[in-house]
Amino acid sequence: MTDFKAPVSDINFLVNDVFKFEQHYKTFPAYEEATPDLVDAIVEECAKFCENELAPLNHSGDKEGCSFDNGEVTTPSGFKDAYQQYIEAGWQGLAHPTEYGGQGLPVSLGLIKSELVGTANWSFGMYPGLSLGAMNTILEHGSDEQKNIYMPKLTEGTWSGTMCLTEAQCGTDLGQIRTKAEPNDDGSYSITGSKIFISAGEHDLTENIIHIVLARLPNAPKGTRGISLFIVPKFLINEDNSIGERNPVVCGSIEDKMGIKASATAVLNFDGAKGYLIGPENKGLECMFTFMNTARIGTAIQGVAASELGYQTSLAYAKDRMSMRSLSGKKAPDQIADPIIHHPDVRRMLLTQKAIVEGGRAMTYYAAKIADEMDQASCPEQKEAADNKLGFLTPILKAFLTELGNESASHAIQVFGGHGYIKEWGLEQNARDVRISSLYEGTTGIQALDLVGRKILLDRAQLFKAFSIEILAFCKDHSMISGNPQKKRMHKFIWQLSKEVANWQRHTVSLMLKARKDRDFVGSCSVDYLMYSGYIFMAYMWAMMAQSANENLTAGKGDKNFNKAKVRTAEFYFDRIFPRVKTLTNTMMSDANSLMKIEIDQF
Amino acid sequence: MTDFKAPVSDINFLVNDVFKFEQHYKTFPAYEEATPDLVDAIVEECAKFCENELAPLNHSGDKEGCSFDNGEVTTPSGFKDAYQQYIEAGWQGLAHPTEYGGQGLPVSLGLIKSELVGTANWSFGMYPGLSLGAMNTILEHGSDEQKNIYMPKLTEGTWSGTMCLTEAQCGTDLGQIRTKAEPNDDGSYSITGSKIFISAGEHDLTENIIHIVLARLPNAPKGTRGISLFIVPKFLINEDNSIGERNPVVCGSIEDKMGIKASATAVLNFDGAKGYLIGPENKGLECMFTFMNTARIGTAIQGVAASELGYQTSLAYAKDRMSMRSLSGKKAPDQIADPIIHHPDVRRMLLTQKAIVEGGRAMTYYAAKIADEMDQASCPEQKEAADNKLGFLTPILKAFLTELGNESASHAIQVFGGHGYIKEWGLEQNARDVRISSLYEGTTGIQALDLVGRKILLDRAQLFKAFSIEILAFCKDHSMISGNPQKKRMHKFIWQLSKEVANWQRHTVSLMLKARKDRDFVGSCSVDYLMYSGYIFMAYMWAMMAQSANENLTAGKGDKNFNKAKVRTAEFYFDRIFPRVKTLTNTMMSDANSLMKIEIDQF
Predict the structure, then answer these.
(1) Residue ranges of the Acyl-CoA oxidase/dehydrogenase middle domain (chains A, B) (predicted)?
(2) Distance CA A359, CA A357 (A)
(3) Phi, then psi, of B581 in degrees rounded to 5
């Protein structure tokens, strides 16, 4: 297996050259401390920790997996120690409030940390990652008392948290939830039911686990409008904040699954466990959704992480492995054959990965800036605006990047030929690990319905319009019309991008009209429309990156090869990946009949 | 896990209605016995065996895997017994000569058997499957003495065979092979070297294993022109044909791999093992290639098999699992939610699988008929013609169907949502198992180079021309111009197909011209061109199937729902899958520069 190297230059290029985080952070008083030097130091430090401590446990963690014995889960060797180091270095509270012991640094920096941790070892990252979900829920909806009880320990990382939504009969359709919450005399509730697929639901890394649980109050309305949110700690907390008695929430088993084997996926049985209402009664789902966007960007990152890991490994192999001669003449005449990186089709597979990982990373950093804006909004209107924009981009990020992450991981295997199928290289693990990403946190189909149903149709495409206009404005700024001869280099990108954004606008209007006449069309076009939107978003990022790299080249700034590589990868993207829109625009506008006319007994 | 049901109606539809095997078999005297009744009985019997004996071992075989101990390999529980039943029923010799104890039935029927066996349990099918490779080599290139020694036992199945090509430093580039063959005084050879990735290289199913080994004679020319082929039995054979002493070819280990875990992939160490030259000296590679086409169709079938298995399982789940309400109104008002098969995007995923499995199966049966023609050719010219046609189609079948098999297996998981990631449903195994198919027997990239380099450029597109003209002739026969009003139903298919075949011709000419100027273009266009060709081939098959189904509907023949389903799936294919050619025609003609210009240190 190749040693993982954190992609620090790529991160710095986005942070400094493309998205100019320095200026961005300066607009928020609370981010004052996030100076370029500090950001640099944090990225470096995190990179080192991930390379040295987490990456070496990735393959062994898969091999060993978690073990389950009588309600207790043991994580693979080395995880406990690595987690201890992780919390001692303060990584868990990096982007959380200082009043609870966090470092109060930008949300975007927290996402960069998650990316690095997740690339080195996605299974490990699930434990602190799920905890962030619980922390955000408590921060957003908890009472001051609840925050004071739970936030310090969660921020410190000595406790962790989970999100308990899914039950055996429902994952997407949470209205079917059956777990009950009966009020106790002391104001607490008695939670009874069974939850499945609870990531980090039970493990040996922390002294307590704080479950956030969806359940129904007695006489709650049916469906999604009768679900409330509860805090259910594994161990109850005494009045002096010390750990108290064991709460009857017990892990019944852990799942035997395709990948992320070092991440425990628990069945949790609540047998009258004591819980505390968080947020208003029957508003549990709304509360959950308030930070769903950030959680989903967290999952989108898995696509980027898997692409990065696969790319690094397959690139090293392609430089090393010798097979056949280059079609255009010997490249390594002294050797028995040429390194396979000289073969055009191997390059196609490598560049596809490179385009996906770097384009995908840019998409998440673009979104991370908006997450900062939301976090630091100075008024509710600003917050809502940022939330809405993020809400429009989130389903695209989540579904598109995880689908492409799967594709990318498969290319990495393919570069290795038969060797890619063997466990020791780690690439088959990478492909197995990333396969979950388009399933959990809302499948690709669900993201697509969210995009088309809520973010386009319900919104009457206002958010779409704003985003597409933003891209056109970028195109205008960098088009040749602006008179700057240096823009010539950008011409081919700008031309293709602006043309396709115009198509995107046209198709979106047609889609809205067609959806009015046929509700099934909403579902039949949705995934193709989402992927189509994703390729445009990624094209926008590649045009931005090409622009920054060209600027650097003109100014003689930075590593010349690095900047040239960015421009060439942008060329590759526009030549070989972006044309996927040609098929998608065709299939997505195709009539729903070809899906709906066939009878169930004809399948 | 859903119980596997052999797709007998689909097979019969192809055998009887689309490809009319009865008439086809009648043209060959040796296939006289293959009457419709016999074919029917064999398919039924094979289906039963696969459903009852092989399918139940598929999941347990994956879980248990093969075990290795001191040179010996133990297959998973039940495999030995199932293999015994397999050979006792005479399945191994189904399509092999009666003079060696086979049943002498058509090659195409042998491929249908391989499909059924492989769909029920691909790992199991690898053992007899590899043996077929060894049998065909000996039949084609062995001396009469060699045939008499090895063929009866191999045909019976009490011995099995392997193909030993790959070494650690080379798989594709066999010119790098280092295994040596030193002549002994008795006319045999002493084989020394190490082979890897030997499927069925060691196991406990048969009393002997006959290895076909690529090795170099002393002073052999360098590269591929200095490779010879040897028979190396695990146990030497005494003069009275009884099993003799152990030959020093020893299994050093078996691979720990992503899938097909019940199929042992051996490292074989030859330590002066006794071997017998088969075929002429230094012509080993040519000998191997004589039946490569059939072997590669065997691998193409893995794509179909995985698609069938995934489709069956996900279809059953989609009818059963209830989640959300249909966008166009409640479909199961008495239930808490609608079965997910009512959701357009779930239908899209199911129909994509259905289109791939049924279209892919048709492609392999189309090729199987040509394999019969080759097998039964009455003169060398006929044989060469069939071999050439098969040679043109083989890389398309192998690469296209295995790539689509991977896609299909992933859709099956996706239909299940998070549950698809859990081992118990068997879908993650299906995805892991099929992943090998685009890697072994020549990767997708290698198939694509074979297609563009050998079958288009070297051949000056003569085979291409013949095949594309055949499709156009079909289009003409079924176009509205022919005056038959019944043809109207076929119009939309014929129109799209003939238009795209014309494009295919045009693009192929452009490709040939472009390849002359830039050798790297051959590699840069190859995979996209292969996939493009695959979608056209599959469209041809869907048009043929729609035509047969329409005929049946008009004649009131067969199950109405079945025939309607064929027409609707054809509609789906042409609406939603075939438009993939739009992207491919764009990317494949794109300049090689976008791949070649980037420097190695810029990756």
Answers:
(1) 163-271
(2) 6
(3) -60, -25
**pLDDT band with cut points at 50, 70 and 90 for residue A289:** confident
Query: Mapped to the 3 state alphabet, what secondary structure does A373-408 carry?
Result: HHHCCCCHHHHHHHHHHHHHHHHHHHHHHHHHHHHH
Residue type (1 letter), A448: A
Rounded to the nearest angstrom, the minimum Cα separation between B299 and chain A is 14
Which entry of A441, A470, A571, A599 is annotated as an active-site residue? Answer: A441
Whether B481 has a pLDDT exceeding 70, the answer reads no
CA-closest candidate to residue B179, choices B76, B273, B296 = B273
Q: In whole angstroms, what is the distance from residue A393 CA to residue A366 CA? A: 10
Q: Do B422 and A257 touch (CB under 8 A)?
A: yes
Could B579 and A580 be called an inter-chain contact, meaning their C-beta atoms sit closer than 8 Å?
Answer: no
**At which residue do the structure tokens 């990478």 appear?**
A430
Q: Which residues pair with B181 in a beta bridge?
A: B191
Instruction: Report the pLDDT value the prediction gives residue A489, as an integer from 0 to 100.
Output: 86
Closest-CA residue in chain A for B259? A421
Taking the CA of residue A100 and the nearest CA in chain B, the distance in Å comes to 35
**B172 contacts on A by Cβ (under 8 Å):** 323-324, 417
Look at residues B70, B19, B1, B13 and name the one whose alpha carbon lies nearest to residue B366.
Answer: B19
Average model confidence (pLDDT) across chain A? 96
> Residue B360, Cβ neighbours under 10 Å: how many?
29
**DSSP calls for B345-356:** HHHHHHHHHHHH
Q: Three-state SS for B571? A: helix
Query: Is A414 within 8 Å of B439 when comparing Cβ atoms?
Result: yes
Q: Would you tell me which residues 349-408 of chain B have a C-beta closer than 8 angstroms to some C-beta of chain A?
A: 349-351, 354, 406
Cβ contact B114:B236 at 8 Å: no
Best to test chain A binding among B439, B518, B595 (most A CBs inside 10 Å): B595
d(CA B528, CA B31) in angstroms, rounded, equals 39
Cβ–Cβ < 8 Å for B309, B59: no
Structure tokens at B242: 């009884």
For A291-321+350-442, which CATH class?
A: mainly alpha
Per-residue confidence (pLDDT) for residue A317, from 0 to 100: 98
| d(C-alpha A570, C-alpha A544), whole Å | 9
Tokens 């449903």 correspond to B425
Question: Which chain A residues have a beta carbon less than 8 Å from that of B171?
Answer: 323, 417-418
Q: 3-class DSSP state for residue B5?
A: coil
Which segments within A132-237 are labelled E, that is strand?
A: 159-164, 180-183, 189-199, 208-215, 228-233, 235-237
Q: Do A600 and B170 make contact, defined as CB atoms within 8 angstroms?
A: no
Q: Are B40 and B25 in contact (CB under 8 A)?
A: no
> Which chain B residue is nearest to residue A348, measuring alpha carbons?
B595
| Backbone φ/ψ region at B99: left (φ over 0), alpha (ψ -120 to 50), beta | alpha
Query: ipTM higher than 0.95?
Result: yes
| Confidence check: pLDDT of B11 > 70 | yes
d(CA A588, CA A596): 14
Got the DSSP string for A110-132?
HHHHHHHHHHH-HHHHHHHHHHH
Residue A495: pLDDT band with limits 50, 70, 90: very high
Size of interface A-B (CB pairs under 8 A): 276
Q: Note whether B306 and B437 are within 8 A (CB).
A: yes
Does the CB of B173 have a partner CB in chain A at under 8 Å? yes
- According to CATH, the topology of domain B8-289 is Butyryl-CoA Dehydrogenase, subunit A; domain 2 (2.40.110)
The DSSP code for B263 is S
Beta-ladder partners of A72: A69
Rounded to the nearest angstrom, the gap between the alpha carbon of residue A304 and the centroid of all alpha carbons in its chain is 8
- Least Cα separation, residue A29 to chain B (angstroms): 39
pLDDT given at position A483: 66
CA distances from B458 to B383, B444, B589 (A): 20, 19, 19
- 3-class SS at A265? strand
